[in-house]
Amino acid sequence: MTAHPDPAAPASLRIVVADDQASVREGLVVLLDLLPDIEVVGSAADGEQALQVVAQEHPDAILLDLHMPVLDGIEATRRLTEQHPDVAVVVLTTFADDSSILAALQAGARSYLTKDADRAEIAQALRGAATGLAVLDPAVQATLLAAASGSAKAPPRNLPDGLTQREAEILCLIARGKTNPDIAAELYLSAHTVKSHINRIFAKTGSADRAASIRYARDHDLA
Question: CA 111 from chain center: how many Å?
Fold first, then answer.
């Protein structure tokens, strides 16, 4: 007997992925396509191709790198916003400096993530952006706050002992006395994801417990 789609089931989120690095682009396509409620309908290696694929496929959202050839991500975002206002632009990039962030948001990007983000976080940002919500990576939030206040300190770009921006953010929250549930709520992460990050932080910093990790954060000017 042939199974028929459930008419009550929500439609899949249709996504385009744009990144000039083939390995990154193809990896994102595979990872996102594994999610039951996301369908990757196209990919692009530069901003110009991204515009063409969006015009052809009419996706719900596009996951876009900033630094691409032919047409960079900022200009591609600006044109996508003008020509396809119903398509949510989610930036995924290695750059978390305030000029890149502000330029992307001013061009019309709804969300901005760094490539430290995991699949669940990227999917959450895509779903949120498609419904009009903005999602900003914690490192991005810290950078914007620092730029706005002129006094707050953004996480350093060159972190010690191989810490990622996300791990540095969580380490800062630990140093501020936040519990795992507090951190999960503040960063919109699952308790399991927070615990995994903390285990990696302890391993990288040689910390046996939270007290040791707090000392490490203060010694390395991360708190």
Answer: 8
* Domains of the chain as residue ranges with CATH: 13-141 (3.40.50.2300), 155-219 (1.10.10.10)
Judged by DSSP in three states, 86 sits in coil
Q: Which of 196, 216, 194 is nearest to 206 (CA)?
A: 216
The torsion region of residue 154 among left (phi > 0), alpha (psi -120 to 50) and beta comes to beta
Q: Each residue of 170-220: pLDDT tens digit?
A: 998 898 888 888 888 777 778 888 899 999 999 999 999 999 999 999 888
End-to-end Cα distance, the chain: 61
Chain centre distance of CA 49: 22
Measured CA to CA, the distance from residue 213 to residue 99 in angstroms comes to 31
* Cβ-based burial of 2 (10 A; exposed 0-12, middle 13-18, buried ≥19): exposed
User: Which residues sit opposite 113 in a β-bridge?
Assistant: 92
Residue 133: count other Cβ atoms within 10 Å of its Cβ: 13
Token pair 């910093």 is found at 205
